[in-house]
Amino acid sequence: MIMMMNLRYPCCGLLIMKLEHQIEESTAMLKSLQDLDSSLKRFDALEQIENACSVLEVIEIDGNCINLLVRTDIKELEDVLCKQKIEDIGELSEVNHKVLIEASSDTMELKNVEIFPNDIFVGDIVGAANSFSHMFTHDTLPETSSSLQWFIMKLLDRIRDCNLRRLVARSASKSRHSFEYLYRDETIKAHLVGGVDAFLKVPPGWPLTSSPLNLMSLKSSNQHKEISLSSLCKIQETANSLDSQIRHQLLSFADEIEKAVLREVHLELHHDNDSSS
Fold first, then answer.
1. Mean pLDDT split into 10-residue runs, the chain, 277 residues
2. In this structure, which of 56, 117, 220, 243 has its CB flanked by the most CB atoms within 10 Å?
């Protein structure tokens, strides 16, 4: 009987070591999340206001994997929507995203991130977070700072901004224009009357911040005459020189771009008629 116990004891020892290692990994992950919670509580007043619509919930921690739920409360952003002249947001009040994060147990470097639904681009944030972790050794990493914490805070901002921009674009499409938010490029595609598409670059934080949109390019549909390069440059220069308040408001900016397009098209037609006569 004693011999059997001696034979089986090494297996028990290995199992105990494995369990202890898993406990250490889970403890490290929990510590990082606790530090993250502490960091979030120390945000200044502006950041607290901007993140009031985002609710982070830890669903599960399994080894190196963290399962999160991010809820975006649209109702908290009514003031922002009113500035965009959007009064009716329909029945939509909350948008949920599930986030699965796999991180290294020792450095907290991100190994893999999955988002459901997959309508938020985070590749650039993941890369930046891992670059952040490489700037420090494990011993010199600042307290309450890690690539995981930095990533989650940036993720909350990205999810909030994407949801808000989609809502603005979708609500603005009830006008005579239609809009589409291209989240990978952080660009809004505006389908203007007359078969012209305007591509607007979205600045960081828009529409929460007062930063204005910028006209990047214009494209005509196949059924319409292509706008000349010189006219495109004039339209772009005119549009991007407008008052920042006009360019901040999506519908107003689209209306002004359309007016500039019509003026240039009219001038081109007038020039062509004069040349042919």
1. 44 66 67 57 40 77 86 76 70 84 77 92 89 57 60 89 90 88 95 89 92 93 67 91 95 94 81 58
2. 56
Between CA 206 and CA 162 the distance in angstroms is 10
Within 8 A by CB and 6+ apart from 216, the residues are 187, 199, 200, 201, 236
Residue matched to tokens 């499409």: 173
Cα distance between residue 119 and residue 115, in whole Å:
8
Sheet of 178-182: strand order equals 178-182, 187-192, 196-201, 214-220
Which helix (H) or strand (E) segment is 57 a member of? strand 54-62
DSSP 8-class letter at 120: -
Angle, vertex CA 124, rays to CA 216 and CA 145, nearest 5? 130
| Alpha-carbon distance values, 18 to 14, 62, 127, 193 (Å) | 6, 14, 31, 65
Distance from C-alpha of 277 to C-alpha of 275, rounded to nearest angstrom: 6
Q: Buried b / exposed e across 14-38, counting CB within 10 Å, b at 16+? A: eeeeeeeeeeebeebbeebbebbee
Cβ-based neighbours of 235, under 8 Å, separated by 6 or more: 215, 218, 227, 257, 260, 261, 264
Angstrom distance (rounded) from CA 183 to CA 118: 11
What pLDDT score was predicted for residue 197? Answer: 92
What does the DSSP 8-state code read for residue 168? H
Could you tell me if 218 and 261 are in contact, meaning their C-beta atoms sit under 8 angstroms apart?
A: yes
Give Cα separations from 63 to 21, 26, 38, 60 (angstroms).
Answer: 10, 5, 22, 10
pLDDT for the residue numbered 273: 58
The helix (H) or strand (E) run that includes residue 251 is helix 250-276
